[in-house]
Specification:
The protein has seven helices and 15 strands.
Amino acid sequence: MLKCIIIEDQPPAQQILQQYIDDTDHLALEKIFSDAIEARAYLEKNTIDLLFLDIKLPKVSGIAFLKSFKDHPPTILTTAYSDYALEGYEYNVVDYLLKPFSFERFSQAVNKVLALMNTESLADNLSKNVADTALYIKLKHEIVKINREDILHIKSDGDYTEIVTESQKHLSTYSLKDWLQKLDDSFCQVHKSYIINLNHLKKISQNKIYQSVKYIIPIGRAYKKNFMKKHLKQ
């Protein structure tokens, strides 16, 4: 059962969404909010699985809400304005429902969310059931196998992280915190934006880590002492 909330200021639209959710077996409506500020306060204390978000809202627009909320739940936009569709997808929105929408179209959007969650779950399960030398990660709508030993570093890049190997770069929706939980002690966070693979460390000079001529990683002041003590035995 997916727990969801609605952020919508128009009562008729609230009622339609509530009815559609009630008619869907695997959805459970937790709350309805008329503005994004109240919803944000709720989300800071509660975990939900799916968000139905209108764009035209009082106080803070739906797009502004997404911009300010990096780790927002999977989101389906609901709006009468088609002009915002492309911008919405830039903020990792799963689908875009243009009002008025049918129950069939609503169901299609919800099924996209379920498929996305199944992909993420499969990636996690594969990673748990293979040798420590491999990771299966979700990249957009694909699952890709990456050998841990091939990873040079992982860089935070806005709402994404970039996994860098000698030959490729991959964008992932995992945060650096997520990666630290998945990786072993061969990896260390050395900067607010970087996790490095210690096996690819060539030298350290003037608060910089050299992995190659191409990749030079800064050492953050807040991370240097722990990095030198724990991993370099200094």
